[in-house]
User: What shape does this take?
Amino acid sequence: MKRRAALLILLVWPVMAAAATLPELESRLAADPNDMKAANEYRKAVIQAGEYDRAIDFFKKLVTDHPKAAYAWLNYGYAYVDKIPAAGSITQVILANTALTNFTKSIEIERSWIALFTRGNSYLYWPKIFGRGPLAVADLEEAVAISKKGPQKKVYARAWIALGDAYWRTDQPDKAKATWKEALALFPGEPQLEARLARDGEDLEAYIYDQLDPNKRVDTNLSPLWEEP
Amino acid sequence: MRRLILFLLIALPAGAASLRFEEIGGKAGARMQHHTRKFPGPHADVLGMFTSGGATAAVGDYDGDGDEDLYVTDSDAGTPGHLLRNQLKETGKLAFVDVTAEAGVGGGNDARSIVADALWLDADNDGALDLVLARFGTPVLYRNEGKGGFKDVSAGSGLDRFANTIAAIAFDYDNDGRLDLLLGNYFPPVNLIDLPTPHVLPNNLDQADNGGGVSLWRNVTEKDKLRFVEVTEKAGLARHTGWTLDAGHADLDNDGWQDLYLAGDYGTDRLFWNNGDGTFRDGTKEAVGIDTRKGMNVDMGDYDRDGWLDVYVTNITDEYMKECNMLWHNNGNRTFSDLSKETGTCNTLWGWAAKFGDFDDDGWEDLFVVNGLRSAGPENYIPVLVEMIITPDIDFTDVRNWPAIRDRTWSGYQKKKLFRNLGDQSFKEVSAQAGVDNDQDGRGIGMADFDQDGRLDLYQTNANQPALFYRNVTDGTGNWLALKLVGTKSNRDAIGARVTVKAGGQTWIREVNGGNGYAGQSSTLVHVGLGSAGKVDAVEIRWPSGKVEKVSAPLNKITTIQESK
Assistant: This one.
């Protein structure tokens, strides 16, 4: 009995601890709605605590109070993305679509690398029949172009990878491979690029589709933006 | 040279056979065309789309001549179902003759009702199978009067509650020796043909709770007067209000009582444990968890031969929805683990019926799965549908909000899946090699050894399309045994009987079921593939009455075993 209770505490404790941090992080964000670090910590805690709806409600209020805060809109979108793996298959569609709307709001305010990458990458999750592949290409080409203007960061590789995927999804396999090759020269040893370049045909297709499985949690941790060189 | 060939034949492991089927529906007189119901009024298109089931096959030897017959449903107004009498015993050939008119069992599709499932059961234990037609409406009950004739006894049967029933199974939930009925209801109980309200569709597409649930009917037949009383509330099943699409029964915890698994469309499947006192308790959360998938089928089988029956549930996996099926491995402690990904049985596209069966008699149960919702024109319905789904605050229950499908295709033209059990906790998809990879809009499966050659055959129903009949012509199959169980204290069909077979140092279990699997009832004969085992060491039967008997049964023959009195 004691062992069971101890196990239960071990399981529940991180959830409770994460939930306990939420009010303070909400205060920080209310004070600075574009605080990406606070938003990132907040969403990480939300995932751990499973408080998805609380986050959605919070960001909804934040963008209502601060409609010009580009990164608040971005995180509002991410709050929906974070909930997707915990939702049923139809709700996933609704969440993904709402996230896209919020990413677009963010881009309308500021055409940032992170917002363009995020929206472009999100389009990739939609089946071909929705015709969102060309939209993904456009966003990701712009994100890559932005990344070329300054010093390279490891995180920028994500946009290159996604751009190659977008070319692949729009039946431009040669462009996809060329993009991944160019990216590998910039980011040597990047495992996702190497994995794609090592595959071909159906094998590559299966790999890309596997990466875009909506039931797998998308890595929405943005800390590499400021932590990595 | 002949010696070498003989040696090789003996030395080859049984089960190395390549599964192979030949489609003989037309030749055998069994290619029945199904017609989905055409609705009147402005919502005809949407309601037609939501009710595109009803293509069912029920296997049973209704005339007691020793071969398996078929009842195949139709669903449009005025169209009759088909009672197909197998002529195997008379002519030695597998061929069917349509005897619906003379038997008097073609009814059901009237102006206010739609036939959605069919089920054979010997409700009065007189040795002649009676027939239930489950409907969007009230059920039809035909009593088998013998000599090929049936009488509609619905009026006095007590089965008088209107429901949109889509699944019917027969089992003896209280082990009193009479077969009870469980009806799985899809829509809430409103007449779809004459809509009293437009709010008839699911209130949530992942966790709907405004469906028809289930109803349980206890058999209280005295002599030849078939009669049922509803015990849903008393049995503890009334709180389930999901969109039940299929129901399956089995003794999942090996306690001698039949448990229930309900596949729920638009949300949570439910597992009910039989308390053994006429009631059930909902064990879903602890046993399988709360899911949000689109449960379409329930079948039970011990695929890994560990002595515990496992559960296979089809869901929807497609480009736009990646649910994955569930192969619930029974952990033997009233919990289950989903091993569909690990075993390679996850993706069957828009799944419908699935049946376990050892098609090559190698000793391991394989799986056949049919799929496909609607194969029509080149335009895809999904983008149109998703436009509606993503509309903020849309009311899904309102039929007026759903876009018309017209001639659009929705998860159509899908290849069927046949998974060969490799005996190492994995399956290999072999439908193309086996010749069963048709792309019809499959719904139900009736499985039986129709030609009694020791190989399980398959009858596949399709919505609004002709059925297909796959005769198993696999070469080099293993040994087998088949048991026809006759209950005396137990229900005569022996539904719920547990058979344990030992041969060659190996053990198999099977249970007789009364209609598990979406839109299809398979033979109640217990068929066990034994691979290379050269003799049967032991056969034990645990009858639903609780009596346990050891019997003997020869290889490669059908043996009838009656429960001792």
Summary: Residues 113 and 146 of chain A are 6 Å apart (CA to CA). The first helix of chain A runs from residue 2 to 31.
